[in-house]
Structure prediction request, 291 residues.
Amino acid sequence: MSAAEGLIQELSPRCTFPAAGTEAIAAVSGGADSLALLVLACEAGVAVTAVHVDHGLRPGSAEEADVVAAAARRLGAEFRAERVAVAEGPDLEQRARIARRAVLGQDAMTGHTEDDQAETLLINLMRGAGPAGLAAMAPGPTHPILAIRRSETAALCRAMGLAPVVDHSNLDPRFQRNRVRRELMPLLADISNRDPVPLLARTARRAREVQAGIEQLAADVDPTDTRALVDQPGAVVNEALRRWLVDDRGHPPSSAELERVLAVVRHEAVACELAGGRRVVRRAGMLRLES
Prediction:
């Protein structure tokens, strides 16, 4: 058995790919994680189309598509190149992510690893997230290699003779995730004298279990009945209101908006404003959402 075959045999049981024969899009930038995703998806029998998205943000980025195209040909996958326009400026990471997702679709497979999961939990923690945020990314067909480490994707690429693209923007300290990866994670390892990634990933799993319980309870609560809401635990009330107040773009209310709505629920106010010109009003103990 070759080194590549041995690694594939070791890593495959930890993946959560869709069933063999399923047609699926894989976001493949050409980095080690996404190339490993492509290798493992093809080995799992998924009918993969590797999609490279060029944001045009750095010199030579368009040529990285050639690396992905060559890997796809070798592995028997389909290939498609996309280009999106993302201008330099504030919130660059978020805008690039939105533009990329728009061409990939919501069901595309991504190469997020256990290391990414740990970083996501820390980023969400710094934003003041509750259980839903601390749950980070859910494993499943869209995050099929979430139980694999970044070091393992690099090892698989080496064993397969694939030369990953090196994205130098991953060194840019303007981006929060880069600082978490390069500064905070090594500091946590030094302070705790252990690898923090498995611990943080375990915390995310436990947060998902907690969140699932909260969601189940919230499903039985009428979010418009203030009398019913005051009898529920705070986490259940928050979840019920979040579900009710999701906007037409699928975004839940912000923490500040939720606090304003809770003031209406507690009879501290009769109405409050939400983003997008929406308004929550209380009448006879019932909440109404007005536009």
Observations:
- Residues 218 and 240 are 5 Å apart (CA to CA).
- The chain has a mean pLDDT of 92.
